[in-house]
Amino acid sequence: MKFRANEEKERGTEEAVKYLTNRALSPQAQEACKATLSDIIKAHGPVITHYPCWHPLLRIPQTAEKNRDRNTFFDGLQSAGYPEHQEIDHLIFLQRGFITCPYTSGAKLRQFVKKFPELEIQKIDAPLYGPRTSRWLVTVDIPLEEDGTLETQSVLKWILASNPLGWAMDDSSWESIKSNLLGSPHGAKSSLLVNQKTGQAIKEIWETLNKYSCQTKGQRPKNP
């Protein structure tokens, strides 16, 4: 099935608004929540469902905390060192950030994020999710291509800093591993984070590493 980025963006926005807008609120308050989410998504979105393993929201804490060897392929924010579940709850992932609405003050999350100058955290005033939650937006600044995807040069920089040789060491095919390298939702070689050009560059890096890994093991390279 062809990857339709615009449809995925619309679907993601609709689901985020539905998830974080409390229907028990007054109509005016609900509209305020929707307007706030719209502004956040325009500034830091679109909404996504899964970060690629090299994403700076994962890699910055891992690198600073000297957890370079930790595998983030199938894990999320907690594997990168963010506080426990109680501090990161009711999440919406964005291209360059995430929204969380925990049933805590968010003090531990704020303290954690403040350790990293590349990351920013701010409190959201709109009553998202529920009346007893706090609302936080964590973001990272990444340059964009003209089409709104992440800049190729920046993406490749983060990839090369994330020990990419490990990608090819688990005997995965491109089809099985691409969601962890492109993020989700995604197509064959693009996603809401990277365009076709960047996705092709990522695939070529994986193919080179896959070939090298197989040679060292005396195996045939995985099919793309």
Question: In short, what is this structure?
Answer:
With 224 residues, this protein is of the alpha+beta class. It has helices at 5-20, 27-44, 56-64, 107-113, 152-160, 174-182, 196-217, and strands spanning 47-48, 92-94, 97-100, 119-123, 136-140. Helix 1 packs across helix 2 (27-44) and helix 6 (174-182) packs across helix 7.
Share of residues in strands: 5-15%
What is the count of helical runs? 7
N-to-C terminal Cα separation, in Å?
18 Å
How much helical structure, as a percent, in the residues?
40-55%
Strand tally, please? Answer: 5
Q: How would you sum up the major sheet? A: 5 strands, antiparallel
The coarse silhouette is globular
- Uncertain runs with pLDDT below 50, 5 residues or more? 68-75
Mean pLDDT: 86
Number of domains: 1
Cα radius of gyration in angstroms = 18 Å
- What strand order characterises the main sheet? 1-2-3-5-4
Determine the structural class based on helices, strands and strand pairing.
alpha+beta
SSE arrangement, N to C = HHEHEEHEEHHH
Description of the molecule:
It contains seven helices and five strands; from the N terminus they run H-H-E-H-E-E-H-E-E-H-H-H. It is globular, with a radius of gyration of 18 Å. With 224 residues, the chain is of the alpha+beta class. It is 40% helix and 8% strand. Helix 1 crosses helix 2, helix 5 packs parallel to helix 7 and helix 6 crosses helix 7. It has one domain. The protein has a five-stranded antiparallel beta sheet with strand order 1-2-3-5-4. Strand 2 and strand 3 form a beta hairpin.
